[in-house]
Predict the structure.
Amino acid sequence: MAWFRGASCLAKVAIRRTLSQHGSYATRTRNRCFHSTVFSLKPEPGPIPRSVPLSRLTDSFLDGTSSVYLEELQRTWESDPNSVDGSWDNFFRNFSGHAATSPGISGQTIQESMKLLLLVRAYQVHGHMKAKLDPLGLEQREIPDDLDPGFFDFNESDLDREFFLGVWRMSGFLSENRPVQTLRAILTRLEQAYCGSIGYEYMHIANREKCNWLRDKIETPSPMPYNSDRRKVILSRLIWGTQFENFLATKWTAAKRFGLEGGETLIPGMKEMIDRSADLGVENIVIGMSHRGRLNVLGNVVRKPLRQIFSEFSGGTKPVDEAGLYTGTGDVKYHLGTSYDRPTRGGKHIHLSLVANPSHLEAVDPVVVGKTRAKQYYSNDFERTKNMGILIHGDGSFAGQGVVYETLHLSGLPNYTTGGTIHIVVNNQVAFTTDPKSGRSSQYCTDVAKALDAPIFHVNGDDVEAVAHACELAAEWRQTFHSDVVVDITCYRRFGHNEIDEPFFTQPKMYKVIKSHPSALEIYKKQLLETGQVTKDDIDRIQNKVLSILNEEFVASKDYVTKRRDWLSNYWSGYKSPEQLSRIRNTGVQPEILKNVGKAITTLPENFNAHRAVKKIFADRFKMIETGEGVDWAVAEALAFATLLVEGNHVRLSGQDVERGTFSHRHSVIHDQVTGERYCPLDHVMMNQNQEMFTVSNSSLSEFGVLGFELGYSMENPNSLVLWEAQFGDFSNGAQVMFDQFLSSGEAKWLRQTGLVLLLPHGYDGQGPEHSSARLERFLQMSDDNPFVIPEMEPTLRTQIQTCNWQVVNVTTPANYFHVLRRQLHRDFRKPLIVMSPKNLLRHKECKSNLSEFDDAQGHPGYDQQGTRFKRLIKDQNGHSDLEEGIRRLVLCSGKVYYELDEQRRSVDGKDVAICRVEQLCPFPYDLIQRELKRYPNAEIVWCQEEPMNMGAYAYIAPRLATAMKAVDRGSIQDIKYVGRGPSAATATGFYGVHVKEHSELVQKAMQPDPLTTPTLA
Ligand SMILES: Cc1ncc(C[n+]2csc(CCOP(=O)(O)OP(=O)(O)O)c2C)c(N)n1
Ligand SMILES: [Mg+2]
């Protein structure tokens, strides 16, 4: 590195000198573009360096390897001058004082040698700035100074001088065994490699092996060796991509399709990428993309039947023969997903799935990555080479949406990596009506990926072979280095944002150029015809064939009937959609199994040096299992996980600090205090358990990205309990897009189910506005159960839960938590579960369960008519009979406020007050509520909550409770008494004293002897 450090210093001196001579760097750059043929002379010559003949150079200049190599080569040359390359012959002649065949190099100075290397490096670092990337030729980029040989004091007379470049331990250009070349030849090669239709950005990667690998690919004299057969395939793929859009445009002139026109080379590019990936062992690709060109990708890349796409275009999406079945709300055609097996060029098959996505740009990114990771788990793809994700982005979105960065940052994390995602940016240089200069602060829209050491290939979208090459190279990179890579296709958008938009309103200059700009297909056809690679007949034949298939498919689309179950993957067959009844099975577990797994998860290895406090926790846990008493929240959760594992399911819990638990209650991973080793008890529930079968993982500090990832993961296989935990429920609002657009509505829009569980710590303990509320009200507002209609509540079937979009619970006992988690998998359908999870209940002395509440033994406390299962409502604990006429007040509540109400009731000896816990808020337990209403015929009915009136469950509960009351003749909504905090802008007070006061007022009022006025505010 000595030479490099020396060279860098020299460069700095040179820059400083130039700056002082010519004013500011920025003002000078514009006219200093150097081409090897047109040379801009330096304004003033620099000081002439003292010439040091090469023969006097020592190893401080040539590194050890090079000098040994040189000596060997010199010996070979001395025995036979013809045995070495001509350039070496020339070099040694000069070196040893023989007459050279061309102008000598012995006058080359150390400074020149160093500057030459800096020049080469400048191309490697900045060559992309000079690459011809913009098909429209409108881009105005300042070419960096150091791409001008004049910057290094070379002048025109140096062009045909030969220079010693060396054979450094570097791949590509500098390893070609041609140590002596003219400056002109060097520059020509550098321009060819770095400044053509592809601009390579890779010098930010701090790994020599990777850079050398890329140099080998980039600096080769023939990077794109496409023969005539390959060219015909590329041509045909481009014709498909182009004619597809033309066809849609002529058949549905006024429809929005967010066409790909201007970026059609994406289609051949993707196909080459997929073929190359298949050649290199990829069997499964999960694709995510937004609107632009989505239909084209669906039809031409994923191979969704064209007749189906056309049928959806004509509005025929509701399946005729499935009338009466659940079809959900559906979605616009350019959001739908699909999956197919596609044959590849190499004769293999590859499974492609395009994930359905909402409008929210880039939100699908982490979902795709999570799904890919799950595929890797289920196919034992330990090397992560068989399953891969491809994400297609827009330029505006890639630069602007934070989730792009959040997703990129998952790429290297052990429990989230997928061995590299390939990103393709369809960079049409505009976002709706916004120019790049208003949309981002960075040079390229892809700059965010540099943080991840991903190579970035910028490619001119008009050069289809360059696009194909960049795409293939990306596939090779991914399969070689198992990390992310970006292909940035610089193209344009021929029409408006959609087909009915007028682009001239906002980009008049650009669209003037676009109007007369030939399509990529026209350019390629012309190029192939001119070089005689194809004939006009060849082209006509392909075009006619494509057109006739499009027409046939169009005719067939008229009778096309969508098969709704097309989407079910193998893992999901047999799972019920909302109109197919499914029993919910009991969730109690045999007592022996509970004891066995209980011991496994509470015992630490003998020589493990756990922290003293952790040892105590585990000793206490062990006692809970042994005595069967006092089981706390953490143990209940671990028991749920362990029993599901024993039943053969996969369990995965991820989120911020979940391993220990935010509230230091979980301790699912223990750290040896001496060795730092980790031990996860849940990895040892069974003999030889696969370590990934139970995965618990601290995540990156991203809510949106990580939740999206887990959502995608959960959608792959129903036999898994996938949970995401928020640090505090409040922070889950960073993932709001996932709640709104995927979790609450995914099944309705796309018929895709997920059993994802969200654990959102919630509860008012005086910790201030941002540590109290998981915004229960938002989840309830998104629930789609009808507040005015009591559904069929047959106790063994309870179809209500199948027709509702998700479940929202606020559970108050460890046993009930155990059962609600197990219930997620013990049924033939999947629904998201939102848990308002506790904080102070984790250690609350009353919040304990006995092991007998977890088992399935008849007569045990958890066992009722249906067996042991999750309790949607917990009735009053005072042993009331079926009819209690003396109870004057029925307080309904949910969550930890129950314990505070109960304590207050005890302190005022309020025996005439009943307290019921609504454990499952959504779907609303009408049947159980009515049972309680009947039990207490004379009681005033109270809803009590700790959240402000405009938050919490009140707005959700009131109409439903009223509907239940009306049906049993117990009054109307006016008869529901509210006890809780008043309306508030902030979720909670920031003053602890105020909190305490509010809270004691709240519980006092709920228990006050006098009848309540409505509403009763704390
Ligand atoms: C989160 C989000 N914000 C705004 C929009 C509205 N919108 C749809 S497309 C678009 C422009 C996207 O530009 P770009 O990413 O460059 O893709 P292009 O349409 O140019 O292919 C916008 C702002 C959206 N769909 N999602
Ligand atoms: Mg764009």
The pocket of thiamine diphosphate (ligand 1) is lined by residues 292, 359-361, 394-397, 426, 428, 430-432, 493, 497 (CB under 6 Å). The first helix runs from residue 2 to 22. The chain has 32 helices and 27 strands.
